[in-house]
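Fold sample X.
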Amino acid sequence: MKKINITNLKDCFRKGIKPAIAFEYAFEINNDEFKTKEPIIEGDDLHELFGTNKDTHFIRMVTSKGRDLIGPNVKIDLTECGIERFIIRPYEQASIDIQECYCAGTEPFITYEYVLKINREKYSVRQEEISREEILALVDKDPKTHRVRMFTKNGKPILKDGQIIDLTKCGVERFVVEALDCTEGYLTGTTTNGVLTESDISFLKGFKFEVALLNYQNLNWLRVTNFDIPEGYNVKEAEAIIMIPPHYPKAQLDMIYFNPPLARADGKHIGALSNRIIDGKTYQQWSRHRTANNKWDPQNDDVESHIDLMISCLKAEFKKR
């Protein structure tokens, strides 16, 4: 077989053809082009070309089948069909929080480790693509008795059996695992009477705290008993209450109220607090509101996202002062 002068792997990938045997092979590492005369190379060879090493950087090979992690002694046949490019990044910058990318409006890049939020906890995985079943396995739930709802910029679809999610695609925020026949936690009161959305009810049924709806002075309120308070405050738990405004979810949820009142354990001042009597109790009102960069989205925001935001505000208090 006659050799050609040079074979460009990315061109072959785009055309869907097998790279021809050549005197030289051109390929990309990140966005830079490199060449080698060897048809078979190892991970260490890529490190040498790029000026990195196995102790500080990792290698991903992007192919038509996915993105493979390449070890220092792994042999790579450059004449095999389907190699698009290589990615080399430092381990110390290798973890990406998917939810943080969503909030910042940035697209996650291919990296070593991904942090994804499932319900209220965060989990680390080392693959760019994850299945519905793998998400359930992370939280130790049975695919036969639980479902996964994915929160994205385009809505909250329920994942189908075997569905694969690419974590490097922009727009994925978080996942919620819901019991199909839920017995964990409970929502007290006679009925929600349309006050809450279907996703709210699913979330609250799986919530570990007791929650109840009440009506006071013609306003609807959601009360959460024994709400966990982040570290650094005078109490570990409190009763929390959130007003559900008329026309919710078109109308946004705003602020949160606590009883007993919260104070910083270090004695430092907390801004924008006041008192309000609700259903015969005095609650401490935390005036914490959304910014222009984090506007309420009735298609995606709900009780769960509001509680998550308020918890973030409680934690952020210690970064302000």
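Fold sample Y, listed below.
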Amino acid sequence: MLVPAAPASAQADEPLLGQLMLVGYNFCPRGWAQASGQLLPISQNSALFSLLGTTYGGNGTSNFQLPDLRGRAAIGIGQGPGLADRVLGELGGVETVTLSLAQLPSHTHVGGVRAFPSVATTTDPAGNYLAQAAGGNLAYAASTTAPTNFMNPETVSVSGAGGSQAHSNLSPYLTLKWCIALQGIFPSRN
């Protein structure tokens, strides 16, 4: 059943204490703070501390920490079908990833190798092409033109290569400012 929204005049003028909101400008409104992990004194924010506790940090004696959403995406708590269980305040993920060979699937490539159609004249592969064996151990022939004959296709195994450098692990994003209500209506549980 859908419940129609209350008219603007009937909606609360105050946010819920600890409520998070995104804004498209570079400051948080009065009564709100940027959700950037700063420490707040419990003595001046006891109601908010009763909601957040030390979920996001702090010593729990004299201070507590606000959530730090700088450079982070918020996800819901709990466990969806086939997903890991996520607890309130849990941090995860990385901005860049360096893959190891163990993380890459094994695979093969089919390649074609060109061979020179005459009898081999040298054992040195440098600057030469594969050629027909001449009864000895020779395997290459010198030529001023690239060969046009292809040998039968074979599977070529590929070994690990690469620069071992990290690559971006970020989804497309739009940066906005996260704010948390430092003042407001204390939320009821039902």
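Sample Y note: DSSP finds one helix and 13 strands in the chain.
Also: The CA atoms of residues 16 and 185 lie 5 Å apart.
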